[in-house]
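ugh ok fine here u go
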Amino acid sequence: MRNISLFSEKPLVFVGWQMIQVFETNGKNLVEIDNDFTGGINLKNKWIHLENPTDLEIELIARVTGADEDRIKAALDEDERSRIETEEGETLVIFDLPVIEEGSDYYSYTTVPVGVVLTEVTIITVCLKSNSVIRNLINQRVKNLDTSDRNRLLYQMMYLTHVKFLQYLRQIDKSYQRIQGELHRSTKNKELIQLLDLENSLVYFSTSLRGNNLVVERLVRQAEKRENEYNIELLEDVQIESKQALDMCNIYRDVLSGTMDAYASIISNNLNITMKLLTIISVIFSIPTIFASFWGMNTGVPFQGELYGFFIVVAFSLLVAVGAFFLLRRNERLRFSVRKPKPGKLKRERKSKNQEE
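structure:
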């Protein structure tokens, strides 16, 4: 590692770095060390993590590690695609990991890219947001964590990422079952909006998992030539979890898409039934209006001058209206029912349809 002075060009004097964390393994423990770079620091076999860093912090890490500044910045673009780049002894691996966004009434899910820069002496991770994958690594939720084995740390990070994808997918499925039960009792806009958010989350997950799968497959091909048996097995586990997460995501997305289409049809059908009912009511109430119009003319009409003429006309118009009501009812014009899908029924129907295809 080249020795670069922080004061070589412009004097950089910093009291502390809020978004930079430096870790190393001491035996079986992961220890966070002081990130005061002004006095010099040995970064060999260290793990440097940056969370939403500033340009000044990125410049500092690039200078003290010799890593390319553009590679460190790559993961700060939210739309950055998953990929692997190797150049000048450095390897950049970008993949997406899931995060939870808290709303006012419920949670939504999305993905953010994380960049891993592997140099000859250290490993650098960069991410825009705080996430449970990095926290689990820092809190030593993973066995055999070793910052000196940079490839293993990368594989462990990717394994945790896809395990977290599976966990969030199960949470999405539980939320879907709960919302569907509420919609079965009463169709409200709030529940429909929640279903739409879940569908959007599954689209994000599916897109990210497809990109992650390509990265994992390339890592597997490279690992067969240079990695030890333990790392190869770990990477194969990553591949299995990645494919399982993608399959589950596609299934849940198809089910949720079918549910949204079904409820859209139900809402449209309910609107048609309501409009039909209002139209029939208007037709029935127009019958007394027609009789009142005829007997309101300034010409001679039947029962004119009779004591009970008014009541006869009213009774006759009501009798015709009631007759029209029963005639329409006999023809099932007023018979309607709003049927909502039972929980799990759409899921079974969708699964059966997929099997037939």
